[in-house]
Amino acid sequence: HRDLHSFPTRRSSDLISCMVVDDDLLNIHIISNFFQRLNVTRIQTAQNGLDAFEVYQNSITNGRSINLITMDLEMPLMNGKIACKKIRKFEQEHNLKPCLIIIISGNIKGG
To answer: CA geometry: angle at 28 spanning 48 and 21, to 5°?
Structure first.
């Protein structure tokens, strides 16, 4: 019988690997700093949906999971909606647990 306090513990933030996807470098900087303040140390970035999908795919292929993605919707080359669909398809094809994707959009359309 071992006391629970004798097991090494890790902060939950040490287990999180995230990717910040936005075509605005200032937004990437702000969101990355937010995660760093939460002690998230594994942060990857991409500036469009195509790069985001490739970073995600390469990370998984190399045995490094990504648990959380913040995704801008409107970006060049591939928008966030299409990138999310490609990531979900990749996860299904490889029987992966879906990562959490948080959509971030600064676009406010008036009527």
So the answer is: 30
pLDDT digits (tens, 9 = 90+) for 45-73: 999 999 999 999 999 888 888 999 999 99
Cβ partners under 8 Å of residue 7, min gap 6: none
pTM, two decimal places: 0.80
Token reading at 90: 């990749």
Instruction: Specify the DSSP class assigned to residue 4.
Output: G
**What would the 3-class secondary structure string for 52-84 be?**
HHHHHHHHHHCCCCCCEEEEECCCCCCCHHHHH
Contact 97, 49 (CB under 8 A): no
